[in-house]
Amino acid sequence: MKVLAEALARRLERLPEGTTCFRWIDGELPGVTVDRFGPVAVLSLYRDAPDEQAIAEALGELVESVYVKRRPREARKLANETPELLAPPLPLIGKAVEAITVSELGAQFEIRPGNGLSVGLYLDARDARAWVRANARGRTVLNTFAYTCGFGVAARLGGAKRAVNLDASRKVLDWGERNHSLNSLSVDRYDFVSGDTFDWLGRFAKKGESFDLVILDPPGFATTRTSRFTAERDYHRLVEAAAKVTAPGGVILAMCNVAQTERAFEEQISRGLVGRKSREVARFGASAIDFVNADLRCHLVELI
Ligand SMILES: C[S@@+](CC[C@H](N)C(=O)[O-])C[C@H]1O[C@@H](n2cnc3c(N)ncnc32)[C@H](O)[C@@H]1O
C-alpha cells in the first residue's frame, strides 16, 4: 500500500528530533488510524473495516509487529465483556512485544502494545508535554488524571521543583514511576498519589496547598467517588476546583479530548473561573505534523 510509505515519509521529514513515536496514519484511510511506536505499529479500527487483515499485512512489511485495537462506537460497552477481542494482547502480525521504550523529544516512555486499548502514551498531547517541559522550571506542578505520568516526566525534565501525579489507578502510577526511572528522574512515592481527582483537589484546598501549574486532562467520562463526570457537561466544576489550588500567577493547563467546539470548551473554562481574574496564555491542539482529525483542545490560563 503506497499510502502507508508516503504518509510515513511525510511525517519523518518534519518530526522533531529524538522522536520515535507518532501518528502514522490519520485521515489517509477511512475509519483507520495507525500509531507508530519504534518498531511497532498500533492499528486502530473505528468501524468494521473488512480490509483489516490487508492493512495489517501491508503495515507488517514496514515494521516488526502490528497490534490491532478495534474501537467501534459501542466499544465502551463491549470493553468489559470482550476486551481480548477489542484489543488482542498478541500482535496480528510479527513477534510479540511485551514492553518497549520509545522516545519523544528525547524523553523516554515505556509502551506496552498489548495492554488493552491504551498502550502508555497519548501521542496527540506531544505539543502540550513540550509546553510543560519548556515552562516548568522552578515551578510546583499538579498533574491530575496522570495516567502513566507523561506530563509529570515532562515537568521534571523541564526542571520543575516538584510534580505531584494523581490518578485513580495505582497500576498506571507504577508505570509512571517506571517512566521517571527511564529518564533518570528520582521517584518520591509521595508524588504518586492514587485517588479521586475531585477528592484530592478538595483536600489540597482545605490544607491551603497550592501549585504553580495545574494540569487537567480528564477522560470524556469518569466516575468520581461521589458522582459521574462528563467532560462536555461538567468541565467547569473541574476548573473551579483546580483554581482553588492554583497559586497566584499560576497557570491551569485545561485539556479536553471530546468532539466539541472551541467556543463550548472556552465557555466551560470561563464558567469555572467566574469571579477570578485570569488571562489566556496560549491555546493549541494536537500537532499538525502527524494529526489531522484529533479532537484535543489545550487552553492555558493564567490566574492573576
Ligand atoms: C485520558 S487518561 C489521562 C491521560 C494523561 N493525562 C496523559 O497525559 O497521558 C485518563 C486517566 O484518568 C484516570 N481517572 C479516571 N477517573 C479518575 C478520577 N475520578 N480521579 C483520578 N483519576 C481518574 C484514569 O485512571 C486514567 O489513567
Give the fraction of residues assigned to helices.
Answer: 25-40%
> What does the radius of gyration come to?
19 Å
Category by helix and strand content: alpha/beta
Bound molecules: S-adenosylmethionine
Placed side by side, the strands forming the largest sheet appear as 10-9-8-11-14-16-15
Name of the CATH architecture of the largest domain:
3-Layer(aba) Sandwich
CATH class of the largest domain: Alpha Beta
Per CATH, the superfamily of the largest domain is Vaccinia Virus protein VP39
CATH topology of the largest domain: Rossmann fold
Mean pLDDT: 94
Structure, explained:
The protein is of the alpha/beta class. It has 2 domains: 2-111, 2-Layer Sandwich (Transcription Regulator spoIIAA); 123-303, Rossmann fold (3-Layer(aba) Sandwich). Helices cover 32% and strands 28% of the residues. The chain is built from 10 helices and 16 strands. The protein has helices at 2-14, 52-60, 75-78, 83-86, 126-135, 150-157, 170-182, 197-207, 231-243, 262-272, and strands at 21-26, 32-37, 40-45, 65-70, 93-94, 100-104, 107-111, 140-143, 162-167, 192-194, 211-216, 221-223, 228-230, 246-256, 278-284, 297-303. The protein has a 7-stranded mixed sheet with strand order 10-9-8-11-14-16-15, sandwiched between helices. Strands 1-2-3-4-5 form a 5-stranded mixed sheet. Strands 6-7 form a two-stranded antiparallel sheet. Helix 2 links the parallel strand 3 and strand 4. The protein is globular. The model has no long low-confidence stretch (mean pLDDT 94). The structure holds S-adenosylmethionine. S-adenosylmethionine (SAM) binds at residues 122, 125, 145-148, 150-151, 167-169, 172, 196-197, 217, 219, 222, 224.
